[in-house]
Predict the structure.
Amino acid sequence: MARPLGIGIVGTGQRCMFFFAPYLRAHPDKVRLECLADQDQARLQSAIEDLGRDIRPYGSIDAMLQDPLVDAVIITTPDWTHRQIFDKALDAGKHVICEKPMATTLEDALHMTRRAMAAQQVVQIGFMLRYAPFFVKLKEVVDSGLIGPLVQVSAAEVVEYYHGAAFFRRWHRFKRNSGGLLVHKASHTLDVINWIVGSAPAQVSAFGGINTFTPNPKAASRCRDCSLRPTCPAAYRPDDYNYVYQTGQERAAQAKHANDLCAYNSEKDSVDSAVLIAQYDSGVRLGFSFSTTGQRHERQLLLIGQRGQIRASQADGVITVEPVGEKPETTLLPEELRGEHGGGDDFLVDSFLECVATGSRPVAGVVAGLHSVALGAAATQSIDQGGCAVDLRQLQAELSRHPDGE
Protein backbone atom coordinates (compact mmCIF):
# COMPACT_ATOMS: atom_id res chain seq x y z
CA MET A 1 0.00 0.00 0.00
CA ALA A 2 1.40 3.40 -1.02
CA ARG A 3 2.17 5.79 1.81
CA PRO A 4 0.00 8.91 2.16
CA LEU A 5 1.19 11.99 0.30
CA GLY A 6 3.69 13.88 2.43
CA ILE A 7 3.17 17.62 2.70
CA GLY A 8 5.25 20.44 4.14
CA ILE A 9 3.72 23.84 4.84
CA VAL A 10 5.79 27.00 4.49
CA GLY A 11 4.63 29.79 6.80
CA THR A 12 2.79 29.45 10.12
CA GLY A 13 0.14 32.11 9.64
CA GLN A 14 -3.61 31.82 10.00
CA ARG A 15 -4.22 29.81 6.80
CA CYS A 16 -1.67 27.23 7.89
CA MET A 17 -2.79 27.03 11.48
CA PHE A 18 -6.56 27.33 11.18
CA PHE A 19 -7.22 25.42 7.97
CA PHE A 20 -4.50 23.55 6.10
CA ALA A 21 -2.71 21.95 9.03
CA PRO A 22 -5.86 20.88 10.93
CA TYR A 23 -7.38 19.44 7.73
CA LEU A 24 -4.25 17.46 6.90
CA ARG A 25 -4.00 16.17 10.46
CA ALA A 26 -7.62 15.02 10.32
CA HIS A 27 -7.07 12.85 7.22
CA PRO A 28 -3.98 10.70 7.91
CA ASP A 29 -5.30 7.93 5.66
CA LYS A 30 -4.68 9.99 2.51
CA VAL A 31 -2.23 12.73 3.43
CA ARG A 32 0.39 13.39 6.08
CA LEU A 33 1.61 16.72 7.40
CA GLU A 34 5.33 15.98 7.61
CA CYS A 35 6.80 19.35 8.52
CA LEU A 36 6.50 23.10 8.87
CA ALA A 37 8.98 25.78 7.81
CA ASP A 38 9.21 29.31 9.17
CA GLN A 39 12.08 31.74 9.69
CA ASP A 40 10.52 32.94 12.95
CA GLN A 41 11.65 30.32 15.46
CA ALA A 42 9.21 31.41 18.16
CA ARG A 43 6.25 31.05 15.79
CA LEU A 44 7.57 27.76 14.45
CA GLN A 45 7.98 26.20 17.88
CA SER A 46 4.57 27.45 18.99
CA ALA A 47 2.98 25.95 15.88
CA ILE A 48 4.62 22.59 16.59
CA GLU A 49 3.35 22.72 20.18
CA ASP A 50 -0.17 23.47 18.96
CA LEU A 51 -0.27 20.91 16.15
CA GLY A 52 1.87 18.03 17.40
CA ARG A 53 5.49 17.26 18.19
CA ASP A 54 5.66 14.57 15.51
CA ILE A 55 5.73 17.38 12.88
CA ARG A 56 9.30 18.25 11.95
CA PRO A 57 10.26 21.96 12.22
CA TYR A 58 12.52 23.63 9.68
CA GLY A 59 13.94 27.12 9.88
CA SER A 60 14.05 27.56 6.10
CA ILE A 61 12.37 26.41 2.90
CA ASP A 62 15.73 25.10 1.70
CA ALA A 63 15.99 22.72 4.65
CA MET A 64 12.40 21.56 4.20
CA LEU A 65 12.90 20.79 0.51
CA GLN A 66 15.70 18.38 1.40
CA ASP A 67 13.28 16.26 3.43
CA PRO A 68 12.74 13.03 1.42
CA LEU A 69 9.22 12.54 2.82
CA VAL A 70 7.95 15.87 1.45
CA ASP A 71 6.13 15.28 -1.84
CA ALA A 72 4.25 18.56 -1.94
CA VAL A 73 4.51 22.05 -0.50
CA ILE A 74 1.77 24.44 0.59
CA ILE A 75 2.86 28.09 0.46
CA THR A 76 1.09 30.21 3.09
CA THR A 77 3.69 32.93 3.56
CA PRO A 78 3.00 36.66 3.00
CA ASP A 79 2.09 37.46 -0.58
CA TRP A 80 5.29 39.19 -1.65
CA THR A 81 7.36 36.10 -0.78
CA HIS A 82 5.49 33.65 -3.00
CA ARG A 83 7.61 33.82 -6.15
CA GLN A 84 10.91 32.82 -4.57
CA ILE A 85 9.42 29.95 -2.57
CA PHE A 86 7.39 28.81 -5.58
CA ASP A 87 10.52 28.63 -7.74
CA LYS A 88 12.44 26.68 -5.11
CA ALA A 89 9.61 24.16 -4.66
CA LEU A 90 9.37 23.50 -8.40
CA ASP A 91 13.16 23.26 -8.69
CA ALA A 92 13.04 20.58 -6.00
CA GLY A 93 10.38 18.62 -7.91
CA LYS A 94 7.56 19.22 -5.42
CA HIS A 95 3.87 19.59 -6.14
CA VAL A 96 2.56 22.95 -4.97
CA ILE A 97 -0.50 24.63 -3.50
CA CYS A 98 0.15 28.37 -3.49
CA GLU A 99 -2.16 30.57 -1.46
CA LYS A 100 -3.84 33.44 -3.22
CA PRO A 101 -2.89 35.85 -4.58
CA MET A 102 -0.29 33.91 -6.53
CA ALA A 103 1.83 37.08 -6.65
CA THR A 104 1.57 40.79 -5.94
CA THR A 105 2.67 41.97 -9.39
CA LEU A 106 1.80 41.00 -12.93
CA GLU A 107 5.49 40.40 -13.68
CA ASP A 108 5.82 37.84 -10.90
CA ALA A 109 2.50 36.18 -11.77
CA LEU A 110 3.52 35.77 -15.41
CA HIS A 111 6.90 34.34 -14.39
CA MET A 112 5.28 31.83 -12.03
CA THR A 113 2.71 30.84 -14.64
CA ARG A 114 5.40 30.10 -17.20
CA ARG A 115 7.42 28.12 -14.65
CA ALA A 116 4.44 25.99 -13.69
CA MET A 117 3.32 25.40 -17.26
CA ALA A 118 6.77 24.07 -18.13
CA ALA A 119 6.87 21.77 -15.07
CA GLN A 120 5.50 18.27 -14.59
CA GLN A 121 4.26 18.85 -11.06
CA VAL A 122 0.70 19.70 -10.06
CA VAL A 123 0.38 23.39 -9.19
CA GLN A 124 -2.83 24.67 -7.65
CA ILE A 125 -3.78 28.17 -6.49
CA GLY A 126 -5.80 28.58 -3.28
CA PHE A 127 -9.06 29.64 -4.94
CA MET A 128 -11.49 27.63 -2.86
CA LEU A 129 -14.55 29.36 -4.34
CA ARG A 130 -14.12 27.32 -7.52
CA TYR A 131 -14.92 24.29 -5.36
CA ALA A 132 -17.70 25.90 -3.29
CA PRO A 133 -21.14 24.42 -4.16
CA PHE A 134 -22.70 27.88 -4.54
CA PHE A 135 -20.31 28.93 -7.31
CA VAL A 136 -20.16 25.46 -8.86
CA LYS A 137 -23.95 25.73 -9.28
CA LEU A 138 -23.65 29.17 -10.91
CA LYS A 139 -21.01 27.87 -13.30
CA GLU A 140 -23.16 24.86 -14.21
CA VAL A 141 -26.22 26.99 -14.98
CA VAL A 142 -24.26 29.45 -17.12
CA ASP A 143 -22.52 26.64 -19.02
CA SER A 144 -25.84 24.86 -19.58
CA GLY A 145 -27.00 27.71 -21.82
CA LEU A 146 -30.25 28.09 -19.90
CA ILE A 147 -30.00 31.90 -19.99
CA GLY A 148 -28.24 31.96 -23.36
CA PRO A 149 -24.71 33.21 -23.99
CA LEU A 150 -23.45 35.42 -21.19
CA VAL A 151 -23.50 39.15 -21.98
CA GLN A 152 -22.50 40.89 -18.78
CA VAL A 153 -21.94 40.43 -15.05
CA SER A 154 -22.68 42.83 -12.21
CA ALA A 155 -21.07 41.80 -8.94
CA ALA A 156 -20.41 43.21 -5.49
CA GLU A 157 -18.25 42.05 -2.61
CA VAL A 158 -18.83 43.60 0.80
CA VAL A 159 -16.32 42.54 3.44
CA GLU A 160 -17.63 42.46 7.03
CA TYR A 161 -16.54 45.63 8.84
CA TYR A 162 -14.32 44.08 11.53
CA HIS A 163 -12.68 41.85 8.94
CA GLY A 164 -12.12 44.90 6.74
CA ALA A 165 -10.55 46.76 9.64
CA ALA A 166 -8.21 43.83 10.30
CA PHE A 167 -6.50 44.36 6.95
CA PHE A 168 -5.49 47.85 8.02
CA ARG A 169 -3.79 46.59 11.18
CA ARG A 170 -1.69 44.06 9.27
CA TRP A 171 0.88 43.97 6.48
CA HIS A 172 -1.85 43.77 3.83
CA ARG A 173 -2.46 47.52 4.07
CA PHE A 174 0.62 48.25 1.94
CA LYS A 175 0.57 47.56 -1.78
CA ARG A 176 4.24 46.56 -1.70
CA ASN A 177 3.26 43.61 0.51
CA SER A 178 -0.09 42.49 -0.89
CA GLY A 179 -0.57 44.29 -4.19
CA GLY A 180 -3.47 46.09 -2.49
CA LEU A 181 -6.83 44.65 -1.49
CA LEU A 182 -8.06 44.32 -5.08
CA VAL A 183 -5.16 41.91 -5.67
CA HIS A 184 -5.26 40.28 -2.25
CA LYS A 185 -8.80 40.17 -0.84
CA ALA A 186 -10.90 40.65 -3.99
CA SER A 187 -8.87 37.97 -5.77
CA HIS A 188 -11.35 35.25 -4.77
CA THR A 189 -14.36 37.04 -6.24
CA LEU A 190 -12.53 38.22 -9.35
CA ASP A 191 -11.24 34.71 -9.96
CA VAL A 192 -14.60 33.02 -9.65
CA ILE A 193 -16.10 35.61 -12.01
CA ASN A 194 -13.31 34.91 -14.50
CA TRP A 195 -14.10 31.21 -14.17
CA ILE A 196 -17.83 31.64 -14.71
CA VAL A 197 -17.27 33.95 -17.68
CA GLY A 198 -14.79 31.48 -19.15
CA SER A 199 -12.58 34.10 -20.75
CA ALA A 200 -9.55 36.26 -20.00
CA PRO A 201 -9.87 39.92 -18.94
CA ALA A 202 -8.83 42.21 -21.79
CA GLN A 203 -9.41 45.80 -20.64
CA VAL A 204 -9.93 47.28 -17.17
CA SER A 205 -10.77 50.68 -15.73
CA ALA A 206 -11.33 51.48 -12.07
CA PHE A 207 -11.88 54.16 -9.45
CA GLY A 208 -11.28 53.72 -5.74
CA GLY A 209 -9.75 55.13 -2.61
CA ILE A 210 -9.48 55.04 1.16
CA ASN A 211 -12.94 56.24 2.13
CA THR A 212 -13.72 54.53 5.43
CA PHE A 213 -10.49 53.82 7.28
CA THR A 214 -9.34 57.43 7.13
CA PRO A 215 -7.38 59.31 9.84
CA ASN A 216 -9.36 60.25 12.93
CA PRO A 217 -7.66 62.91 15.11
CA LYS A 218 -9.83 61.89 18.07
CA ALA A 219 -8.58 58.31 17.99
CA ALA A 220 -5.36 57.00 19.49
CA SER A 221 -2.78 55.07 17.53
CA ARG A 222 -3.71 51.87 19.40
CA CYS A 223 -7.08 50.64 20.61
CA ARG A 224 -5.79 50.00 24.14
CA ASP A 225 -5.21 53.72 24.60
CA CYS A 226 -8.33 54.99 22.81
CA SER A 227 -11.31 56.67 24.46
CA LEU A 228 -13.47 55.80 21.44
CA ARG A 229 -13.02 52.08 21.91
CA PRO A 230 -16.41 51.32 23.54
CA THR A 231 -18.36 52.48 20.48
CA CYS A 232 -15.83 51.93 17.67
CA PRO A 233 -16.86 49.16 15.22
CA ALA A 234 -13.20 48.54 14.37
CA ALA A 235 -11.93 48.38 17.96
CA TYR A 236 -9.69 45.40 18.58
CA ARG A 237 -11.47 42.50 20.30
CA PRO A 238 -8.96 40.35 22.20
CA ASP A 239 -11.37 37.43 22.55
CA ASP A 240 -12.51 37.45 18.90
CA TYR A 241 -10.97 35.92 15.80
CA ASN A 242 -8.47 38.50 14.55
CA TYR A 243 -7.25 36.87 11.33
CA VAL A 244 -3.81 36.09 12.75
CA TYR A 245 -2.15 33.15 14.46
CA GLN A 246 -0.85 34.13 17.86
CA THR A 247 1.91 32.11 19.47
CA GLY A 248 1.41 30.57 22.89
CA GLN A 249 3.45 33.39 24.41
CA GLU A 250 1.34 36.02 22.66
CA ARG A 251 -1.90 34.38 23.78
CA ALA A 252 -0.67 34.37 27.36
CA ALA A 253 0.09 38.11 27.32
CA GLN A 254 -2.61 39.67 25.14
CA ALA A 255 -2.20 43.14 26.58
CA LYS A 256 1.43 43.20 25.55
CA HIS A 257 1.30 41.44 22.18
CA ALA A 258 -2.14 42.26 20.72
CA ASN A 259 -1.98 43.83 17.27
CA ASP A 260 -4.47 46.56 18.14
CA LEU A 261 -3.17 49.18 15.72
CA CYS A 262 -5.90 51.71 14.91
CA ALA A 263 -7.36 50.81 11.51
CA TYR A 264 -8.12 54.48 10.87
CA ASN A 265 -4.83 56.06 11.90
CA SER A 266 -2.51 53.36 10.61
CA GLU A 267 -0.29 54.20 7.67
CA LYS A 268 -1.66 52.57 4.52
CA ASP A 269 -1.86 52.89 0.74
CA SER A 270 -4.34 50.17 -0.25
CA VAL A 271 -7.89 51.17 -1.14
CA ASP A 272 -10.74 50.13 1.12
CA SER A 273 -13.39 50.58 -1.58
CA ALA A 274 -13.42 50.56 -5.37
CA VAL A 275 -15.47 50.04 -8.50
CA LEU A 276 -14.12 48.56 -11.69
CA ILE A 277 -15.38 47.81 -15.15
CA ALA A 278 -13.78 45.28 -17.44
CA GLN A 279 -14.28 43.63 -20.79
CA TYR A 280 -13.21 40.08 -21.54
CA ASP A 281 -11.73 38.62 -24.71
CA SER A 282 -15.13 37.04 -25.35
CA GLY A 283 -16.85 40.44 -25.24
CA VAL A 284 -18.55 39.83 -21.89
CA ARG A 285 -18.59 42.96 -19.70
CA LEU A 286 -18.10 43.15 -15.94
CA GLY A 287 -19.03 45.75 -13.35
CA PHE A 288 -17.61 45.03 -9.88
CA SER A 289 -17.94 46.88 -6.57
CA PHE A 290 -15.67 46.22 -3.60
CA SER A 291 -16.06 47.61 -0.08
CA THR A 292 -15.04 46.79 3.49
CA THR A 293 -17.94 48.04 5.60
CA GLY A 294 -20.52 45.25 5.70
CA GLN A 295 -22.61 43.98 8.59
CA ARG A 296 -21.73 40.54 7.21
CA HIS A 297 -19.57 39.28 4.38
CA GLU A 298 -21.52 39.15 1.14
CA ARG A 299 -21.02 38.43 -2.53
CA GLN A 300 -23.87 39.27 -4.88
CA LEU A 301 -23.96 38.52 -8.59
CA LEU A 302 -26.29 39.35 -11.44
CA LEU A 303 -25.43 37.26 -14.50
CA ILE A 304 -27.18 38.47 -17.63
CA GLY A 305 -27.45 36.29 -20.71
CA GLN A 306 -29.13 36.75 -24.06
CA ARG A 307 -32.18 34.80 -22.86
CA GLY A 308 -32.44 35.46 -19.16
CA GLN A 309 -30.60 36.23 -15.96
CA ILE A 310 -29.36 34.73 -12.70
CA ARG A 311 -29.55 36.58 -9.38
CA ALA A 312 -27.43 35.21 -6.55
CA SER A 313 -26.54 36.03 -2.94
CA GLN A 314 -23.81 33.97 -1.33
CA ALA A 315 -24.59 35.14 2.22
CA ASP A 316 -28.25 34.15 1.83
CA GLY A 317 -27.39 31.00 -0.13
CA VAL A 318 -29.94 31.92 -2.80
CA ILE A 319 -29.61 31.40 -6.55
CA THR A 320 -32.58 32.42 -8.71
CA VAL A 321 -32.52 31.48 -12.40
CA GLU A 322 -34.92 33.49 -14.57
CA PRO A 323 -34.94 32.30 -18.21
CA VAL A 324 -37.05 34.39 -20.56
CA GLY A 325 -40.50 32.85 -21.01
CA GLU A 326 -40.07 30.29 -18.24
CA LYS A 327 -40.90 30.10 -14.57
CA PRO A 328 -38.04 31.27 -12.30
CA GLU A 329 -36.32 28.56 -10.29
CA THR A 330 -34.71 29.22 -6.93
CA THR A 331 -32.05 27.10 -5.21
CA LEU A 332 -31.44 27.54 -1.48
CA LEU A 333 -28.14 26.25 -0.15
CA PRO A 334 -27.82 25.02 3.46
CA GLU A 335 -26.50 27.37 6.12
CA GLU A 336 -23.09 25.68 6.30
CA LEU A 337 -22.41 26.53 2.63
CA ARG A 338 -23.14 30.26 2.94
CA GLY A 339 -19.95 31.35 4.66
CA GLU A 340 -17.22 33.48 3.18
CA HIS A 341 -15.42 30.45 1.72
CA GLY A 342 -18.64 28.65 0.86
CA GLY A 343 -17.48 25.26 2.10
CA GLY A 344 -14.85 25.13 -0.65
CA ASP A 345 -11.70 24.74 1.49
CA ASP A 346 -11.97 20.99 2.03
CA PHE A 347 -12.87 20.39 -1.61
CA LEU A 348 -9.82 22.40 -2.71
CA VAL A 349 -7.41 20.11 -0.84
CA ASP A 350 -9.27 16.97 -1.92
CA SER A 351 -9.04 18.12 -5.53
CA PHE A 352 -5.29 18.71 -5.16
CA LEU A 353 -4.76 15.20 -3.80
CA GLU A 354 -6.78 13.74 -6.67
CA CYS A 355 -4.79 15.72 -9.24
CA VAL A 356 -1.50 14.48 -7.77
CA ALA A 357 -2.79 10.90 -7.80
CA THR A 358 -4.15 11.03 -11.37
CA GLY A 359 -1.91 13.61 -13.03
CA SER A 360 -4.90 15.75 -13.97
CA ARG A 361 -4.92 19.54 -13.95
CA PRO A 362 -6.58 21.40 -11.06
CA VAL A 363 -9.64 23.53 -11.66
CA ALA A 364 -7.82 26.39 -9.94
CA GLY A 365 -4.57 26.31 -11.88
CA VAL A 366 -1.82 28.84 -12.49
CA VAL A 367 -3.57 30.60 -15.37
CA ALA A 368 -6.45 31.29 -12.98
CA GLY A 369 -3.91 32.82 -10.61
CA LEU A 370 -2.46 34.95 -13.39
CA HIS A 371 -5.83 36.26 -14.58
CA SER A 372 -6.92 37.19 -11.06
CA VAL A 373 -3.70 39.09 -10.40
CA ALA A 374 -4.00 40.73 -13.83
CA LEU A 375 -7.52 42.00 -13.13
CA GLY A 376 -6.73 43.22 -9.61
CA ALA A 377 -3.36 44.76 -10.52
CA ALA A 378 -4.76 46.46 -13.63
CA ALA A 379 -7.62 47.92 -11.58
CA THR A 380 -5.14 49.19 -8.97
CA GLN A 381 -3.00 50.72 -11.72
CA SER A 382 -6.07 52.36 -13.24
CA ILE A 383 -7.03 53.86 -9.87
CA ASP A 384 -3.52 55.24 -9.47
CA GLN A 385 -3.81 56.80 -12.95
CA GLY A 386 -7.20 58.43 -12.37
CA GLY A 387 -9.32 55.74 -14.02
CA CYS A 388 -7.39 55.31 -17.27
CA ALA A 389 -8.13 52.06 -19.10
CA VAL A 390 -5.45 49.37 -18.78
CA ASP A 391 -5.08 47.00 -21.73
CA LEU A 392 -4.32 43.37 -20.86
CA ARG A 393 -4.54 41.90 -24.35
CA GLN A 394 -0.77 41.82 -24.77
CA LEU A 395 -0.55 39.64 -21.66
CA GLN A 396 -2.84 37.08 -23.24
CA ALA A 397 -0.81 37.19 -26.44
CA GLU A 398 2.36 36.45 -24.47
CA LEU A 399 0.70 33.60 -22.62
CA SER A 400 -0.77 32.09 -25.79
CA ARG A 401 2.71 31.71 -27.23
CA HIS A 402 3.44 29.07 -24.58
CA PRO A 403 2.76 25.63 -26.11
CA ASP A 404 1.29 24.20 -22.89
CA GLY A 405 -1.26 26.91 -22.08
CA GLU A 406 -4.29 25.82 -20.07
